[in-house]
Amino acid sequence: MRAWKLILIGFLLCLSGVVLPFLMVIKILESTFFLNFLSYTASILGLFLGIIGAAYYVRENRQK
């Protein structure tokens, strides 16, 4: 998988990890344990995928 795809997926997951709790706070979505766990997991997974994607990006461009 290309590095920019990992960074994009990581960004989208982190964005959903921010948007879901915001929607819960303003009472558009009901706050449930599953939704809280899902938003936390998306945020952490997005952070790790973004870091891994950035490392791959640096590795690909350093070899040139």
Which key terms come to mind for this protein?
single chain; 0% strand; 64 residues; mainly alpha
Mean pLDDT: 94
Number of strands: 0
Strand content: under 5%
Structural class determined from secondary elements? mainly alpha
Number of helices: 2
Summarize the structure.
Helices cover 83% and strands 0% of the residues. It has helices spanning 3-25, 33-62.
Please describe the topology of this protein.
Elements: H1 3-25, H2 33-62
Helix pairs in contact: 1-2
In words, what does this structure look like?
- This protein has 64 residues and is mostly helical.
- 83% of the residues lie in helices and 0% in strands.
- It has one domain (3-62).
- The model has no long low-confidence stretch (mean pLDDT 94).
